[in-house]
């Protein structure tokens, strides 16, 4: 059974004052997402499911889905703030979506096979898809047998400011925790640093694994997620900016012993448009990758 690629694209059309995810960055008008889907197909994924906002459906089908027709089967599911479990009602003043793990829950009815989760606007690189496809294609006979791609932090930096990354701690190749670190940047000596919760400056080794939201799950994850989402809502339903993130659910499952998450190493170099100043560099990188023959003239 081929794994499914689950693309989190519900932020489309709302953030960044424009459709950042539909920004044409490749030499023939390709978006970052086009490269991810092309790489996933090459790596052996069999289907792509997108989670988007309902009010964006017509544009999405016209601009995005049409180009993948005849290449790979696709499905669309919708994230909305009132898509809550039975017995819960969305507060009237809530405007913020419920977060990445709520977006993942939207795939429950259409995904019945192992699946990888990605952000629509991150470039992960071919090798990252290969390592996770290989892992997801193995037999999974027990619940809670998950994985994630741990990017080396030195391969995920921008020269144009700081980045936020989930810094991973591991033991025997398994994830033991993810701590979201904001404002990771280069210092004047080229070291990668961040300020910890005690105000102390810490240095990260370039090979330190970080999460770029490339996770691998089996369908039992939906049941665990639903349970954890209810607990989250019991506590935070009325906190306007509270969000139910993937690492939050994962952390709980690791500590309860219900899940293990294998951290897969990749030498792929991440890139994305975190800052407007990143854009020219990304355009240049895609042009280079095409020129080197990494990608064909036309992806689809």
Would you kindly provide a brief summary of this structure?
This protein is of the alpha/beta class and 300 residues long.
For the biggest sheet, the summary is: 11 strands, mixed
N/C terminus separation? 24 Å
- Structural category is alpha/beta
Radius of gyration: 19 Å
The CATH topology is Spore Coat Polysaccharide Biosynthesis Protein SpsA, Chain A
CATH class assignment: Alpha Beta
Number of domains: 1
User: Order of helices and strands, N to C?
Assistant: EHEHEHEEHEEEEEEHHEEH
Question: What would you note in describing this structure?
Answer:
The protein contains 7 helices and 13 strands. It is an alpha/beta fold. The protein has a single domain (4-291), classed as Spore Coat Polysaccharide Biosynthesis Protein SpsA, Chain A, CATH 3.90.550. The strands form 2 sheets. Strands 1, 2, 3, 4, 6, 7, 8, 9, 10, 11 and 12 form an 11-stranded mixed beta sheet that branches. Strands 5-13 form a two-stranded antiparallel sheet. A hairpin with a 2-residue loop joins strand 7 and strand 8 (174-186). Mean pLDDT is 93; it is low at 13-17.
Produce the secondary structure layout.
Elements (H helix, E strand, L loop, with lengths): L3 E5 L23 H12 L3 E6 L4 H12 L5 E5 L21 H6 L9 E5 L2 E2 L2 H11 L8 E8 L10 E9 L2 E13 L5 E4 L5 E4 L4 E9 L2 H17 L9 H10 L4 E7 L4 E2 L6 H13 L9
Parallel strand pairs: 1-2, 1-4, 2-3, 6-12
Antiparallel strand pairs: 4-11, 5-13, 6-11, 7-8, 7-11, 8-9, 9-10
Helix pairs in contact: 1-4
């Amino acid at each position: 059974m081929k794994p499914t690629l689950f693309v989190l694209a519900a932020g489309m059309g709302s953030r960044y004052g424009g459709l950042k995810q539909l920004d044409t960055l490749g030499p023939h008008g390709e978006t970052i997402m086009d490269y991810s889907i092309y790489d996933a197909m090459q790596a052996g994924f069999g289907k792509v499911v997108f989670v988007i906002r309902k009010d964006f459906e017509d544009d999405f089908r016209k601009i995005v889905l049409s180009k993948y027709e005849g290449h790979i089967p696709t499905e669309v599911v919708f994230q909305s703030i009132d898509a809550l479990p039975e017995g819960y009602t969305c507060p009237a003043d809530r405007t913020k979506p419920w977060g990445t793990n709520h977006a993942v829950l939207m795939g429950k009815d259409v995904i019945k096979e192992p699946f990888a989760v990605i952000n629509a606007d991150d470039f992960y690189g071919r090798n990252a898809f290969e390592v996770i496809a290989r892992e997801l294609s193995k037999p999974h006979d027990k619940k809670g047998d998950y994985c994630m791609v741990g990017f080396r932090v030195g391969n995920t930096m921008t020269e144009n400011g700081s980045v936020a990354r989930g810094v991973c701690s591991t033991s025997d190749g398994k994830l033991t925790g993810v701590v979201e670190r904001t404002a990771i940047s280069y210092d004047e000596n080229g070291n990668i640093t961040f300020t910890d919760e005690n105000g102390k400056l810490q240095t990260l080794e370039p090979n330190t694994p970080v999460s770029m939201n490339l996770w691998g799950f089996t369908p039992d994850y939906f049941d665990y997620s639903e349970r954890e989402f209810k607990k989250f809502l019991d506590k935070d339903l009325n906190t306007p900016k509270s969000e139910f993130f993937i690492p939050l659910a994962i952390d709980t499952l690791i500590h309860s012993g219900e899940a293990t998450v294998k951290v897969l190493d990749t030498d792929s170099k991440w890139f994305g448009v975190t800052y407007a100043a990143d854009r020219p560099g990304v355009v240049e990188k895609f042009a280079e990758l095409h020129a080197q023959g990494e990608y064909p003239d036309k992806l689809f």
